Structure formats: C-alpha cells, structure tokens
C-alpha cells in the first residue's frame, strides 16, 4: 500500500510540537512512513511510541476511507435511494409558514418585488391557495424541496403580479424658462402645401 499523500491533522502538530526536539525528530518520519508506505516503526523511544500509538488510529481510519474510495465506495441500496427521494415531506402549509417566518427571505422578496410585508403575507396566502389547487388537480402533496418551493413562489409571483413599468414623471418646465411657439410660427419644417 503506497500512497502519494495523507491527512495530517492540526491536533498531530499541536501534540508533537510540545515534545522535545529529539522526540519530534523520531515521530515525524514514523508517521510519514506509516501513512505513506504502511511501515510500522520499530525502534522508537517510549515517548515517541506513545505519541505514535495515539496518532495511528486516525491514520488507519483515513487509509481505510482512501481504499474504499478507490473501489467507488459502497453501492446504495434500493431502500437508501427510495428514502433519499422521499426524504422531503413538508406540506404546502408548512412551506408557506416557513417562508412567512423567515425574515431574511421575506425582506429579499419584498425588495425584489417592491412590495410591503403586508402585501407579501397576502401573496403567500394566495400562493398557498394555488398550491392547494395543484394538490387537488395533480395529487401532489408538496414540492420536491424547499428551494423548489421558493423558486415556485418567485415564478408564480412574476406571472400573477407582473411588475408595472414605473416611469419617473418628467418635470414640466414653467413658461418663463422655455418659450413656446405661437400659433402660426414656423417650426422649421415644410408644410405639405408648400411642396
């Protein structure tokens, strides 16, 4: 078992750095040779042997993970796949309540759609009605995930409440600053009769 790398935890360093330099000089190569090549050190001082004994189980666990990872890991069973797919179980009511209580989400939606908190609550109630209609029509009890629910709300709001184009009213100049032509003044264009 030769490896190109291994995990060296900060706790190893913290423990080893407290040791005298001669023990440090023993333990560092012992750890590296064991983790990279599987060689168990033979002649360590008692202190270095004690330190190695404490570190060895962590190296063994990481080596086992590495070896299992090379094999692709354990295959998921049908039961695990089914439970992963059905793990999300919030109802429409619970989803809406969660969005109603999430202050950060509420602020984001209110800013994005330029609405008040009261309007947001009204729209959430209408959204819940819409979701319950889907339940009646499609037999769907909940979204696939909470993120899916949030995306659905955003999409629904853009369709149910298309944002109006807001135009900034132009200031109307007073008569003293811009002269208006009198009736009959020439605007610089040609009349059709003059052609």
How would you describe this structure to a colleague?
There is one protein chain. With 195 residues, the chain is mainly alpha-helical. Helix content is 59%, strand content 0%. Among the domains are: 10-70, no CATH class; 92-160. α2 packs parallel to α3 (46-70). The protein is elongated, with a radius of gyration of 36 Å. The model has no long low-confidence stretch (mean pLDDT 81). This is DUF1376 domain-containing protein.
Task: Give a quick set of tags describing it.
195 residues; mainly alpha; 8 helices
In total, the number of strands is 0
User: What percent of residues are in strands?
Assistant: under 5%
* Radius of gyration from CA coordinates: 36 Å
Measured between the Cα atoms of the first and last residue, the distance is 99 Å
Low-confidence stretches: none
Shape: elongated
Give the mean pLDDT: 81
InterPro entries: DUF6291, DUF7833
Organism: Duncaniella muris
Domain DUF6291: 5-81
Protein name: DUF1376 domain-containing protein
In short:
InterPro entries: DUF6291 (IPR046258), DUF7833 (IPR057155). The protein is mainly alpha-helical.
